[in-house]
D-lactate ferricytochrome c oxidoreductase (Coemansia umbellata), 529 residues
Amino acid sequence: MLASVRARIIPTRKASAGWTAATKPLRGQAVLPLSVFASFYHKPARSEAFKRLSAEDVNYFKTILPSETILATPAVGGTADPAELDAFNADWLNKYRGNSQIVLRPKSTEQVAAILKYCSDNRVAVVPQGGNTGLVGGSVPVHDEVVLSLRNMSKVRSYDEISGILVCDAGCVLEELENYVAERGHVMPLDLGAKGSCHIGGNVATNAGGIKLLRYGSLHGSVLGLEVVLPDGTVLDNLSTLRKDNTGYDLKQLFIGSEGTLGVITGVSVVTPRRSEAVNVAVLGVPDYSSVQRAFKLTRQRCGEVLSAYEFWDASSMSAVLKHQDLRNPLSSEYPFYVLIETSGSNKDHDDEKLGGLLEELMEEGVVKDGALAQDDSQIARMWSMREGIPESLSKTGATYKYDISIPIPVLYDIVGDIAQRLEKANLYKPGSTSYPVRLVCGYGHIGDGNLHLNVVAERFEDKVTKIFEPYVYEWVSSHRGSISAEHGVGLMKRDYLGYSKSPSMIEYMKRIKDLFDPNHILNPYKVV
Ligand code: FAD
Ligand code: MLT
Ligand code: ZN
């Protein structure tokens, strides 16, 4: 049965043969000159409670850190070319930019503790930084905060092949961990397009979701323990490898998703599931959004026990990918929506039959118009590159405004058309035309998790564009009792909009927790609360 389905849904081998091999997800963006950063985002004023760094501070850091781990410009008594700090001062989207004159790259938890103790005692503001792939302006300084980069802490501390429990430094790159556990028959419980650069510590700090959340759940479940350095230098050693531990408050949960505002994560203990023997990936062409939902319902009904991902993107996202990535559409024509289904199980024949049956049913019911089923690992990788290549393709198209929202699936995509219309009405956008300030409005995301990424790509970041959808998007999300941040976090971008998703009393308790852990507010100031 499967063969006939394949024959019908795979357009041609030729189309696939033209695809290039999946490329490693990139650090990506060139760092733009300062002049490009318009004043469109309103920086909070620098707090004068924070000390301005001097050579005296840098001299102290030299007593606790090896000299090669300090990058300081002449402005604070160092010798580094200020351009060397650009990559630490600018975020991945080239949207936010700070003016830090010093980056510290400690090699041990003790060094992190010594740095933080000094900074807390002397009211020196600090921004913890992992792979700097965050999308809400949380990972870069707002003003002259010290950048505390974890990239020199990248060792696996232990791995238990029976339980699959990995304990590692926070600065390990996600993809390197993925390769490490893959050699031992396991997978990391999270995967995202930024895996080639992001750190596990950054993933935990943002509670990153990604494409496997549907299968393995959030990091609140997979992370078993954390080692965290508090702003006063205390090391909270909660690097447990236990699956079960009900001894009072589960403090680690507070740091998962705290975005560097409560402590610096230096070690992570995480459970890694077994790698599935049989993986299938299909890309489908879908005529409308209601069919995307119907297909999801049927996929869960027919293949729920092996379903490992259900992603979708619209035609505008696809056009950006096809323009900027060396990939071809695996389908024979264009469709309003595309869905990527992945199954991962232990019995290939069983999974093939199940997925084959599902695809046949979807085609027969007209829910899906066309489809391609990957025939080997390289086709699987290319199909995933198509989905994971969207953020980078949009950034290559222009300045990307990104909204990451959670709302009930039936109305999730409405906001994309709504925003496009508002922009058209304001004479800022015309679909298909390049003579307007806005070039593209698109939506994609983890529909299985009820998470849409609404993106507006413009010539540049500027107020006249921003004001069309801010705070409108947040009001709209709030009216559906959704979340203004499904997975990217709050950072600087959404700090002033937190009230759209959290009640005043919840925000008050968040502030009290912040005061408790960081009474001098030196950690990642101006962000989150
Ligand atoms: P950074 O960007 O360096 O930092 C992010 C935040 O965490 C900052 O507030 C920072 O201060 C804090 N932080 C970093 N390290 C530490 C630490 N050790 N201790 C305390 N605080 C720390 N996110 C998703 O959820 N799902 C996706 O599918 C997804 N896909 C992405 C695809 C691309 C191409 C890109 C560029 C980003 C994507 N993201 C996604 C955004 C995501 O939040 C980050 O990629 C990732 O989790 C951040 O890790 P990082 O090491 O780069 O952290
Ligand atoms: C994704 O799902 O691709 C990421 O969250 C990044 C993005 O939203 O662009
Ligand atoms: Zn995402």
In short: The first strand starts at residue 70 and ends at 72. The pocket of flavin-adenine dinucleotide (ligand 1) is lined by residues 92, 127-135, 138-139, 150, 170, 192-194, 198-199, 201-203, 205-206, 208-210, 259-260, 264-265, 391-392, 487-488, 491, 524 (CB under 6 Å). Residues 1-39 have pLDDT under 50 and may be disordered.
